[in-house]
Write a structure and sequence with these properties.
- The protein is mainly alpha-helical.
- It has a domain of 60 residues: 434 Repressor (Amino-terminal Domain).
- The chain has five helices and no strands.
- The protein is globular.
- The protein starts with 18 loop residues before the first helix and ends in a 14-residue tail after the last helix.
């Protein structure tokens, strides 16, 4: 019988291996309208892509990115914008669906 300590921890970054997967993941996270969740999701994408390369592409320190893009991080809009741009993504405004 396998022990819990032998089990592999699930890491979503292991599955973010295409532009479509990344865009779909971030779109799904953004549906929750939770800034902390979005920061953590951007951190997942950054780890999948390589934090060191992302730091170079954004001009931000790698350690600052790890801090900002964590579950407890609170990145500025400028940081989110730089990260999205470096990832080849953009924020697209859409009307909020309302039920009538």
């Amino acid at each position: 019988m396998a022990k819990i300590s032998d089990m592999k921890v699930f890491d979503v970054a292991d599955y973010l291996d295409s532009e479509e997967m990344i865009a779909g993941y971030l779109a799904m996270v953004m549906e929750d309208n939770d800034p902390a969740l979005l920061a953590a999701a951007l951190g997942d994408v950054a780890r999948a892509r390589g934090m060191t390369q992302l730091a170079r592409d954004t001009g931000l320190a790698r350690e600052a990115l790890y801090r900002s893009l964590s579950e407890t991080g609170n990145p500025s809009f400028a940081t989110v914008n730089k990260v999205m741009h470096a990832l080849g993504l953009k924020l697209v405004p859409q009307p909020i669906a309302t039920s009538t």
